[in-house]
């Protein structure tokens, strides 16, 4: 039994020892992480620093670890917890032991230790913000973390964010140095700013967010603390309310952890310092061109994450304008961020894995020469050198680019150059010259004197004459000619000049040939189109002249007002001024056999000879029917049937017929889709109410009615066609109102009919205008036919 008890005791002791060792290792790792985060040192350097501190303070390593972790917590928190611990156990007063560690710092130290360890692995301010949000979300309820850095002029620039959103981050990327912006105030004062009442705070501070109520409590802390801070750490929460004391202490401690990590970002990159690097740099200093030595930076799994530039020639330059040794120590993704994932990046990896140099396809790149952007063509070559890559940029020969440009010009201009050396008999044609001539390149070029053999016979003599003058007198020429190509006849031109010897003898001839077939075809098509247009214009002008003569013969205008059945009649006819066709407007004013008077105004749809012919048919038929005793409505019905059964069954017309009895002074009138007459009586202007009547030629069964009005001495009645009142883009009622206003003003001024029409009509008329101006004088005498 005694032996068994000893074995159990030894096992328990071993377990306690292992447990203590595990706890010590965990505390050591947390302390190393905190020290690495606050100072930016490496893991080995942190371990060595803890050992040195423990030795100089005559403390154990575990005690030093707890002191280091306890230093993350603000002094006031440590004092309060130490007093609480001393009150509970007076033995701890004035002493520091590793057993006091957990009690002095509580769970805050554990949190900070984990934060510190994770911050060591971040490689940028953006990753730092994301890592902080991951830890602070469960600890303080954070929903967003923001890092601002002070720039020149005391403005701020966003260097990292998490939970903010891309749009909002872009809007708040730059912050001017103005009061009322909390990160600026925190850096200026060197003290944290706690915003815990968004309604109150937004009255005097400009808050980030859209809307600002998105985050109802915020904290802004300077990193590091004090007036030397250059980074502001923002922690934003959606719920309202104050930050608890533990939360404030945690955020202050986290700010101290960030200070070391941010210093590590700013520390200059240290390039490899081995003999190979120094030797390569000395060589690169002496060679021209752009070249850099890259050392791959690998992850824990061995994958290449980036490359460090360890040497560079003086002509090497990155996107920031750094050249030569200024680039040494920087990373490829920093100096050339656009290369990630591109063929160049994949080519670098392939060269590292296979050991075979990689050479890229030529690509265009824009340089800046004396402040002017210049696009050049480059290739990149990456050759393995030791464990790294020697990358060179090869700029292509400008002569090659010029040759390519010349080839492009020839192709786009459909021309090719040619050269004949008359001394050596060497002939050089560009490939495009064969294409222009439609000649097989396998047949080779043709001597200058035999060039006329390639053209059509009728063009050979002028070309031969021009070549003779060029060879013997050095006279440059520009000669058009044609050739028979596989795709048909081509229209070409040749332009050539000679380079002469001192005695004036032509020694070399150079020039170009151009295919003008497409241009010539377009010219011929244009000439043909112009010929057709001239022919059509002549036909239209002849038609207009014939229609005008017909209209004048069928519709003679009286030279002065006439008296008819005791009424004074004035007539106006104005043809359209736009277009080349004559319209179908007409009028009639005749005396009937029973001494009555007939007034007609009509308008045939359309223009040209057809409209004039229809107008004549309707005019004379209407006069004949009414003269032989037909009523006005019967005449309109018969005219409608006439149009429906005419050769052009699509013809339509409007018309107003009026019969005046001088004995009773009664005017009887009817209309077919025509504007109503305008009556002026005693200074009042009004339109007569239209009786029913449909457009002529529109229906086989129209209804026509008539109306009567008794004219009084001094009355004035206007019959007119729609060209007087219609305007493009407006309703007909506006035209009626305009006519009434013009007539009313005309009556006051006692102006002429010509003046009335001048005030009504625009300079450019699109339709004919016909007007019958009928007046009843106080003592009217009967007159003749108008």
Report a brief summary of the structure.
With 786 residues, the protein is an alpha+beta fold.
Task: Give me the Rg, rounded.
Answer: 52 Å
Overall number of strands: 28
**Helical segment tally?**
21
- The end-to-end distance, rounded to whole angstroms, is 156 Å
- Class from helix and strand fractions: alpha+beta
Oligomer state equals single chain
Shape: flat
Largest sheet: 6 strands, antiparallel
> Helix fraction?
40-55%
The overall pLDDT, averaged over residues, is: 78
Question: Into which percentage range does the β-strand content fall?
Answer: 15-25%
Unreliable runs, pLDDT <50, ≥5 residues?
14-22, 74-106, 267-273, 781-786
Largest sheet: spatial strand order:
3-2-1-6-5-4
Describe, in plain words, how this protein is organized in 3D:
- The protein is flat.
- It contains 21 helices and 28 strands.
- The protein starts with a helix and ends in an 11-residue tail after the last strand.
- The strands form five sheets. A six-stranded antiparallel sheet has the order 3-2-1-6-5-4, sandwiched between helices.
- Helix content is 40%, strand content 25%.
- With 786 residues, the protein is an alpha+beta fold.
List the helices and strands and how they pair.
Blueprint: H1 2-39, H2 43-56, H3 61-70, H4 75-88, H5 100-120, H6 125-140, E1 144-150, E2 156-162, H7 166-171, E3 174-175, H8 182-189, E4 193-195, H9 198-201, E5 217-223, E6 231-237, H10 245-266, H11 275-286, E7 290-298, E8 304-312, H12 332-335, H13 343-354, E9 358-359, E10 363-369, E11 372-385, E12 388-395, H14 398-413, E13 415-421, E14 427-429, H15 431-437, H16 457-473, E15 477-485, E16 488-500, E17 506-515, H17 517-554, E18 562-564, E19 567-574, E20 583-591, E21 597-607, H18 609-627, H19 632-644, E22 653-661, E23 666-672, E24 678-681, E25 684-687, E26 706-710, E27 716-720, H20 732-749, H21 753-760, E28 769-775
Antiparallel strand pairs: 1-2, 1-6, 2-3, 4-5, 5-6, 7-8, 7-12, 9-11, 10-11, 11-12, 13-14, 13-17, 15-16, 16-17, 18-19, 19-28, 20-21, 21-22, 22-23, 23-26, 24-25, 24-27, 27-28
């Amino acid at each position: 039994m005694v032996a068994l008890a000893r074995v159990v005791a030894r096992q328990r002791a071993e377990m306690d020892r292992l447990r203590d060792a595990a706890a010590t290792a965990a505390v050591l790792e947390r302390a190393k992480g905190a020290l690495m985060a606050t100072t930016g040192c490496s893991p080995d350097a942190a371990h060595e620093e803890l050992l040195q501190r423990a030795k100089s303070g005559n403390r154990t390593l575990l005690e030093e670890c707890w002191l280091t972790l306890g230093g993350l917590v603000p002094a006031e928190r440590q004092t309060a917890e130490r007093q609480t611990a001393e009150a509970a156990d007076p033995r701890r007063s004035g002493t520091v032991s590793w057993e006091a560690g957990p009690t002095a710092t509580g769970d805050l130290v554990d949190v900070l230790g984990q934060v510190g360890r994770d911050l060591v692995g971040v490689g940028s301010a953006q990753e730092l913000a994301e890592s902080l949000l991951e830890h602070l979300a469960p600890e303080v309820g954070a929903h967003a973390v923001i890092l601002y850095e002070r720039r020149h002029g005391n403005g701020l620039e966003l260097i990292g964010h998490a939970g903010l959103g891309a749009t909002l981050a872009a809007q708040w990327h730059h912050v001017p140095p103005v009061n009322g912006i909390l990160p600026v105030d925190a850096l200026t004062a060197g003290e944290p700013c706690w915003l815990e009442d968004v309604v109150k705070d937004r009255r005097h501070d400009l808050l980030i967010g859209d809307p600002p109520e998105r985050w109802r409590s915020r904290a802004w802390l300077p990193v590091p603390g004090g007036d030397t801070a250059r980074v502001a750490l923002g922690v934003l929460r959606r719920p309202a309310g104050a930050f608890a004391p533990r939360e404030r202490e945690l955020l202050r401690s986290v700010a101290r952890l960030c200070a070391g990590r941010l210093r590590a970002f700013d520390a200059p990159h240290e390039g490899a310092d081995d003999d190979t690097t120094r030797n390569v740099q000395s060589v690169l200093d002496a060679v021209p061109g752009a070249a850099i030595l890259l050392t791959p930076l690998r992850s824990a799994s061995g994958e290449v994450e980036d490359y460090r530039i360890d040497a560079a020639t003086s002509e090497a330059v990155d996107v920031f304008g750094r050249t030569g040794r200024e680039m040494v120590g920087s990373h490829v993704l920093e100096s050339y961020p656009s290369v990630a994932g591109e063929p160049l990046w994949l080519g670098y990896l392939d060269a590292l894995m296979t050991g075979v140099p990689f050479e890229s396809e030529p690509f265009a790149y824009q340089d800046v020469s004396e402040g002017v952007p210049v696009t050049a063509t480059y290739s990149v070559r990456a050759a393995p050198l030791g464990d790294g890559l020697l990358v060179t940029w090869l700029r292509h020969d400008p002569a090659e680019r010029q040759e390519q440009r010349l080839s492009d010009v020839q192709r786009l201009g459909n021309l090719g150059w040619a050269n004949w050396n008359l001394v050596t008999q060497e002939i050089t044609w560009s490939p495009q010259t064969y294409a222009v001539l439609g000649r097989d390149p396998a047949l080779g070029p043709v001597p200058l004197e035999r060039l006329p053999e390639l053209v059509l016979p009728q063009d050979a003599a002028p070309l031969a004459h021009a070549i003779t003058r060029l060879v013997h007198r050095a006279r440059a020429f520009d000669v058009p000619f044609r050739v028979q190509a596989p795709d048909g006849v081509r229209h070409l031109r040749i332009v050539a000049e000679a380079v002469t010897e001192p005695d004036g003898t032509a020694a070399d001839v150079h020039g170009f040939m151009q295919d003008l077939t497409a241009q010539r075809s377009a010219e011929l098509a244009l000439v043909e189109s112009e010929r057709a247009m001239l022919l059509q214009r002549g036909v239209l002008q002849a038609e207009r002249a014939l229609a005008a003569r017909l209209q004048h013969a069928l519709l003679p205008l009286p030279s002065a007002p006439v008296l008819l059945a005791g009424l004074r009649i004035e007539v106006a006819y104005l043809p359209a001024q736009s277009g080349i066709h004559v319209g179908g407007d007409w009028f009639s004013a005749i005396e009937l056999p029973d001494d009555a008077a007939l007034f007609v105004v009509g308008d045939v749809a359309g223009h040209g000879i057809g409209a004039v012919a229809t107008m004549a048919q309707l005019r004379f038929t209407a006069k004949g029917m009414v003269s032989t005793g037909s009523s006005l409505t019967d005449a309109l019905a018969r005219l409608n049937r006439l149009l429906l059964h005419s050769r052009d069954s699509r013809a339509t017309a409007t018309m107003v017929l009026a019969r005046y009895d001088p004995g009773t002074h009664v005017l009887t009138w009817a209309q077919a889709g025509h504007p109503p007459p305008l009556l002026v009586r005693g200074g009042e202007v009004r339109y007569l109410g239209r009786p029913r009547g449909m457009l002529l030629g529109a229906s086989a069964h129209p209804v026509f009615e008539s109306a009567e009005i008794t004219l009084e001495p001094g009355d004035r009645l206007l019959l007119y066609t729609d060209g007087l009142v219609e305007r493009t883009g407006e309703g007909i009622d506006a035209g009626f109102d305009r006519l009434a206003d013009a007539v009313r003003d005309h009556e006051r001024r006692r102006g002429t009919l010509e003046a009335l029409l001048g005030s009504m009509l625009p300079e450019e008329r699109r339709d004919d205008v016909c007007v019958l101006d009928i007046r009843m004088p106080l003592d009217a005498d009967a007159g003749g036919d108008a």
